[in-house]
Amino acid sequence: MSGKIVVIFGASNILWIVFAASQDFKIETSPESRTLAQIGDSISLVCNTIGCESPFFSWRTQMDSPLNGEVRTEGTKSILTMDPVSLQNEHSYLCTATCGSEKREKQIQVEIYSFPRDPEIHLNGLLEVGKPITVKCLVPDVYPFDKLEIDLLKGDHLMKNQEFLEVMDKKSPETKSLEVTFTPIVEDIGKALVCRAKLHVDETDFAPKERESTKKLQVYISPQNTVISVNPSTRLQEGGSVTMTCSSEGLPAPEIFWSKKLDNGNLQLLSGNATLTLIAMRIEDSGIYVCEGGNLIGKSRKEVELIVQAFHSDPEIKMSGLLVHGNPVTVSCEVPNVYPFNQLEIELLKGETTMQNKVFLEEVDRKSPETKSLEVTFIPTTEDTGKVLVCQAKLYIGEMEFQPKQRQSTQTLYVNVAPRDTTVLVNPSPILEEGSSVNMTCSSSGLPAPKILWSRQLNNGDLQPLSENTTITLISTKMEDSGTYVCEGINQAGISRKEVELIIQVAPRDIQLRAFPSESVKEGDTVIISCTCRNYPETWIILKKKAETGDTVLKSTDGAYTIRKAQLQDAGVYECESKNEVGSQSRSLTLDVKGRENNKDYFSPELLMLYFASSLIIPAIGMTIYFARKANMKGSYSLVEAQKSKV
User: Fold this and answer.
1) In CA terms, which of 51, 315, 430, 496 is 20 to 30 Å from 451?
2) What domains, with CATH codes, occur in the chain?
3) 407: which DSSP letter?
4) pLDDT for 644
């Protein structure tokens, strides 16, 4: 019996020892079994062993998902850090510790939430008394939103409560909101809107689980009941004063602006004060004045019309244009801004003679000043100069509080005469020798006395201004001074012009004498002797052959003389003389004619070509001479015509 007991006692000791050993090796976790982490934060799960100096650790999720964190071991401690926390960290994490052949496990449940910011309060406009407005309470990026509750309060009054119990179809933060539409009242002034959000998560050892925002109500009242008072009256006499005061109700108190309505409907700003004072009133001050009360919500407008009764200024005499002898002109007599015009009479006189009289009897369609006038068309003459136009206006309105009842204006007539009888005197003559001087004097009659303007006409027809003096003097004239000179008499009534052609004669020069094809030819050749002279005016060209027995004048065409089938006797000296009234110039050349063998007539292809060429050269030379002369003078000149111009 005792032996059995011993055995039993020995086995129980062994079991106790094993049990005691297993009780010494254990693990602890922090947090112990459950933790809450907000998205974006950082958390660490700690697994610590007791009773084992060198444990081996491992971490895994219950669903064998990725850890989405970093593990580090420090002796008997293993730490799993998730930074930052995301929805992928929402798992049950299992820590396994092995010590020799023994293994211990413990799990920590990580729950994720998102409640990062206070709610936001949004209004869809300004709060105006009597006008509905929508307020939105918005909670951004909340998770899990099926545990969210939102309250919206106005002061202590709960306007709306909402819980978001719908099933989440996906694991992600969402923005949730509630809306309330209400109509602000005056009593809401000073109250506050409160948006309170609650996230009902168990074991709330995190903060905050409740967030709220407030917004103080700024309630507006649009301007209304705008009123204008006018002192002394809306109907005023010219020169008087008026004070207008405007008031308008609203919240905040409206700002007051005074404007005047223009003819085009636009408003001209006058003042930013409640009171507008106008002094020394004139006709132009008549019109519609606008008071406008305005704040952030709106505007309220009130209008008042001021009428300035007037006969305030003398009539105005207006001409349709300058008074020019013989030209019709319209004169108007205008009475500006008169009221009431249906009792107005206008009379227009020239000297003591009545030109026209008019009485305005038409009905006044509106009580406002108007401008009235009459018009007369007449033909002024020089005899009217010095006479006086008189415009009389009479307003028959009986007893008036202001004067005068009659007004008039006068204007002395001055009749202009357009420039005429413009003449030019040329001394000594419009035809001069080069180097001479000439005076050209212009005169023109008119009223007022015309201003003189000298110009020269260019080739393109334009005028080149030269002088504003009556007399223009050219000293030591040159051929380039030839041309058309224009004198203009100018005053405000018109222009009169006179032209004079100035011709500067130059003695012949630049004379040229040539033989074509050469000054040395063979017997039987054709030769052309041509003489040209660049000169103005036109000169006479005399072509002759010199001989001891006397000179022979050759019959030339435009300075060209043709010798066909030259003979030995055609050799000799040829002279060209160019002359005009101013002088003369001559040139000469020697023609050499060589004989041919056996003294036979010779006709070669070269001679035939020269013959045909000469038939073309002669006209060409003639045209060359003609255009050379045209380029250096204007028109033509002959001694006969020159003599006529001097008579």
Assistant:
1) 430
2) 25-113 (2.60.40.10), 120-217 (2.60.40.10), 221-309 (2.60.40.10), 316-400 (2.60.40.10), 417-505 (2.60.40.10), 511-632 (2.60.40.10)
3) E
4) 29
* 643 pLDDT higher than 60: no
Count CB atoms within 10 A of the CB of residue 612: 11
What separation in angstroms does the CA of 478 have from each of 431, 536, 546?
12, 11, 35
In angstroms, rounded to a whole number, what is the distance separating the alpha carbons of residues 542 and 554?
Answer: 8
User: Contacts for 156-159 with beta carbons within 8 Å, 24 or more apart?
Assistant: none
Cα distance between residue 547 and residue 576, in whole Å: 14
Half-sphere exposure of 594 (CA within 13 A, CB side): 7
Q: What is the pLDDT of residues 573-628, one digit of tens each?
A: 999 988 777 777 888 999 899 987 655 444 444 444 544 455 544 445 444 444 44
Give the closest residue to 197 by CA, choosing from 180, 214, 182.
Answer: 214
Instruction: Report the 10 Å Cβ neighbour count for 12.
Output: 10
Q: How many other CB atoms are found less than 10 A from the CB of residue 420?
A: 14
Percent of the chain topping pLDDT 90: 54
pLDDT averaged over the chain?
83
Calculate mean pLDDT across residues 528-548: 81
Dihedrals φ, ψ of 524, to 5°? 95, -10
For residue 253, give the DSSP letter. Answer: P
Number of H helices, E strands in the chain: 3, 47
What residues contact residue 552 under an 8 Å CB cut-off, 6+ apart?
A: 544, 545
Residue 152 vs residues 167, 465, 576: alpha-carbon distances, Å: 23, 92, 126
- pLDDT tens-place string over residues 265-294: 899 999 999 999 999 988 788 889 999 999
Asked if 358 contacts 342 with a C-beta cutoff of 8 angstroms, the reply is: no
Beta strands in 538-630 (DSSP E): 540-545, 552-553, 560-563, 572-579, 584-594
Give the pLDDT confidence of 16-26 residue by residue, as tens digits. 333 444 458 99
d(CA 217, CA 211): 20
